[in-house]
Automatic annotation (TrEMBL):
Name used for this protein in its record: Purple acid phosphatase
Domain Purple acid phosphatase C-terminal: 360-421
Ranges where the Purple acid phosphatase N-terminal domain occurs: 20-113
Organism: Stentor coeruleus
Segment forming the signal sequence: 1-15
Reaction equations catalysed: a phosphate monoester + H2O = an alcohol + phosphate
Amino acid sequence: MFLNILLYYIGVCSAGYATPEQIHLSWTENPNEMRITWVTYLPLSTNLYYRSLLCKDSIDWSEKPASYTIFDAGNIFIRYEFIHTVTIQISSDCIYEYYAGSYYGWSPTYKFRGLSPGTKIFDSIDMLLVADWGGGTVGQLTKNLILKQISLDQVDGILHAGDLAYDLPDLEGMVGDSWLNMIQPIAARIPYMVSPGNHEYINNCSHFKNRFKMPINEANQGTGYFFSFDLGRAHFIMINTEIIVDDKMASEIYTEVNWLKKDLKKANENRDERPWIIVLTHRNLYCSVDWTLPYKEKNSNCGVDSIILRRYLEDLLYQEGVDLFFQAHVHQYERNSPIYKNKTVKSDYDDKYMHVNPKATIYITNGNAGNIEHHNNPISKTPQKWSIFAAEAYGYGKLHVFNKTHIYYQQYSSGREIAIDHLWIIKDKLRF
C-alpha cells in the first residue's frame, strides 16, 4: 500500500498536481462540435474558458464546466488520472481561443479553427497523416517538423492510424503521459483523430478508450475503434484492422465489416458532393516483402496478415471505388500504384508522380513517424511490380484535397525537413 501511495504522489508532483496537461482536440459524431480533453492528477472541478474571433457572430469569453472520469493508468500499482472533457458548439467561420483549469492551475492559451465535419463544404482541406509515433529522438524530430508546418501552412486535422506512444500503458502509464504532453502543442491546436493499432491492445485497449474520445456510432458502441466523417470534398474512414487479424476478436469482425459496407454505400450515394473516399487503417493490405530474408524474422508485418485483410476488405474497397488507402504497421514509407488482386491496374494516364482517372485503389504505407522500435521491415530488395517509391526516412504525410477533381499528397522526412515524395491524383469521374 505504501508503494502504491508513493508512486501515485510521485506522478502527481511531477505533473504539477492540478495544472491541466495532455490537452488535445477531437471532432465528435455531430457537426459544429469540438471536444477538448485534458488531464489532472487531483479530482478537481475544472472549467473551459473560450471565445470566438474573426467572425460575424463573435462571442466574448464564456465559461463551461468540464466533467471528468477517473482512470487508473497503472499496471502493477494504482495510479489515478482524472480525465476532463468539454464539448462546445463551434462555427466554421470562426477562430476559437481557449484555456482550461481552475484556481489551482491553468493551461496555456491555444487557438483553433472552427471547421468541423459534416458542415459547410470547403473545396480545399489539408490533413496530416501519421502512424507508429512515439517519443525519443526520432519522435521528437517528427514533432518539431509538424510544429513548423502548422505554424506556416493550413492544417485542418491530424489522422493517426494506430500505435501511439510505444506504449501508452508503459511505466504505469507515464509513457502515455509523456507522449501526450509531447504532442500537446500540436493536438491542442489541431483536431487529433486516432484509431487503434496492435500496440493499443495492451491492457484490452483501456488506455486508448479512456485517453481518446472518438466519434460514436451504433456499431462501435462508444469505443471509437472505427468511425467516419465528411470534410471538404472527401469522406474519411478510420477502421480497426486488429479485430480482423486476431483470432481472439473474430466475433467482432462482421460488426465492423457490415458497418463499413453501409458506410461506403452511403458515401457513394453522396459522391456528387464528396467524390473522394479515403480509408486509413493500421495494418497493411499491400506492401513489398523482401523474399530473400527469413519470413518470420523480417517480413512478418506484411505477410499472412495482409492476405487475411485482403480477403475481408479488398473486394469491398474495389467495388465501392475507394480512392486512397493509407496503412501503417511497417515502419517505412512505400507508395504503390493502383492495385487489385495483387496486380497493377492502369489508369488513363500514369507516371511516377501522377495518376489520371485511376481504375483501382492506391495504397500508401506510412508507418514511419518514429518510435523506440525503429525500422521493423527493411526496404525490400525485391519490390513488387506495383511498388513505385519507398524510403526509410522517418516522417509523415500531408494530404491536400483541392476540389472534386484534384488531390495532392506529399511525404515528409522529419530528419531532413523536406518533402521526399509527392503524388497527384486527378479524375474527371466521380468514381472508378
